[in-house]
Design goal:
GTPase that associates with the 50S ribosomal subunit and may have a role during protein synthesis or ribosome biogenesis. Its main location: cytoplasm. By secondary structure, this protein is an alpha/beta fold. The chain contains 15 helices and 13 strands. A 6-stranded mixed β-sheet has the order 6-7-5-8-9-10, with helices on both faces. A 4-stranded parallel β-sheet has the order 2-1-3-4, sandwiched between helices. It has a 3-stranded antiparallel β-sheet with strand order 11-13-12. Helix 1 packs across helix 4 and helix 5 packs antiparallel against helix 8.
């Protein structure tokens, strides 16, 4: 049986209703993704956060009454609570209390597959828990399984701060080694001049489905938040024959815990290292514009907002009304449709051609290796064999910084 959960949210009267509703719906999805079942949602309209209890005393008493009536064992707050608030609320409610950040960390803990992913999650969890240790001893000793308890075992959490700090330092050292390895891998990619495409977007926008379709891969795809956690990279051929590396990245979300942004910096670096971004948007989501803004903000934070980008509005098959895109260049597609997948790849080439250096070149038939290089490392629009000259006349486009460009100009 699923764990029964009560959700609690404070609504600032100045906040737009759509934005608040969307955030609450997201909290429900996060709870379900973590394996819980929402039995009640309680909202308080309040201008300021109560410094000791987050919401007012009266509302807290109302929540206590509600959870005593129901079977709810967990109360989830739609915000990050301070250590003091967390303690005070748990004492009053006599239930396990977690906040939005801890819930997200919990999902990440269950999704991490690689060694690096697991280390990053544990680091984020420990950094989140360190200031919240005081007064948690009795509660932690009661923990069994359940939401908000994945990741570090309770013995780790009950240990003193020094032990946790040592563990944090140890994880950071181990992650530095992973970062070095990743940098060496990137360096090799740069030396071989591999063109890198990153698929980014809000969580559950269809990134993994698109990635699997274009690479004939089988990365985990499900209608869940954060289905992908560890970045995957595969080679893909664009319609002209141009070869690129494409990466599926972790989904973005509103109010991502700061510890997670820091811990997943190296994962998100796949985005900063990219030459091109495909921004996947769930066009059928009622709050897709807000989700787009969240992704744009995170790309700015990562200093990746200058990269050439194609916005792909996905799930057009679920749209009831005419859809008007808010960003260009863009396409509206269903990533389950093979023709639409080809349209996306065609559009990527179209955008690149506007950015790249246009060239015309003649390659003798005897230089087969050189011809092959241009076919896979540039976008060729026409190729003609001239019998009289025994060679190929090429017209195409190439990245302005590609080493092959110098050979064209010689």
């Amino acid at each position: 049986m699923k764990e029964q959960v009560v959700l609690v949210a404070r609504r600032d009267p100045a906040q737009e209703e759509e934005r608040f509703t969307s955030s609450l719906e997201e909290l429900k999805s996060l709870t379900e993704t973590a394996g819980g079942e929402v039995c009640k949602v309680m909202v308080q309209k309040r201008e300021r956060v109560h410094p000791a209890t987050y919401i007012g005393e009266g509302k807290l008493a109302e929540i206590k009454e509600e959870i005593d009536k129901s079977e709810a064992g967990i109360v989830v707050f739609n915000d990050e609570l301070s250590p003091g608030q967390l303690r005070n609320i748990a004492d009053r409610l006599e239930r396990r209390v977690i906040d939005r950040s801890q819930l997200i960390l919990d999902i990440f803990a269950s999704r991490a597959r690689t060694k690096e992913g697991k280390l990053q999650v544990e680091l984020a969890q420990l950094q989140y828990l360190l200031p919240r240790l005081a007064g948690q001893g009795t509660e932690l000793s009661r923990l069994g399984g359940g939401i908000g308890t994945r990741g570090p075992g309770e013995t780790k959490l009950e240990s003193d701060r020094r032990h946790i700090q040592r563990r944090i330092d140890d994880i950071k050292r181990r992650l530095q080694t992973v970062v070095k390895q990743r940098n060496q891998y990137r360096k090799r990619r740069e030396d071989n001049y591999a063109f890198q495409v990153a698929i980014v977007g809000y969580t559950n926008a269809g990134k993994s489905t698109f990635f699997n379709k274009v690479t004939d891969s089988n990365s985990f795809e499900e209608d869940l938040l954060f289905a992908t956690l560890d970045p995957l990279t595969r080679q893909v051929s664009l319609p002209s024959g141009f070869k690129a590396l494409i990466s599926d990245t972790v989904g973005f979300i509103q109010d991502l815990p700061t510890t997670l942004i820091a811990a997943f910096r190296s994962t998100l670096e796949e985005v900063t290292e990219a030459d091109f971004i495909i921004h996947m948007v769930d066009a059928s989501h009622p709050d897709h514009e807000e989700q787009e803004k969240t992704v744009h903000k995170l790309l700015r934070d990562l200093h990746a907002d200058h990269l050439p980008t194609l916005t792909v509005y996905n799930k057009k098959d679920l749209l009831q009304d005419d859809f008007i895109p808010s960003t260009f260049p863009s396409l509206s597609v269903s990533v389950h449709d093979r023709i639409d997948i080809k349209r996306v790849l065609d559009k990527v080439e179209e955008v690149l051609k506007e950015e790249w250096y246009e060239y015309s070149l003649f390659i003798p038939a005897s230089q087969g290796k050189r011809l092959q290089q241009f076919k896979s490392e540039s976008i060729i629009t026409t190729i003609k064999f001239h019998e009289d000259r025994e060679g190929y006349a090429l017209h195409g486009y190439i990245h302005p910084e590609h080493p092959l460009k110098n050979k064209i100009l010689q």
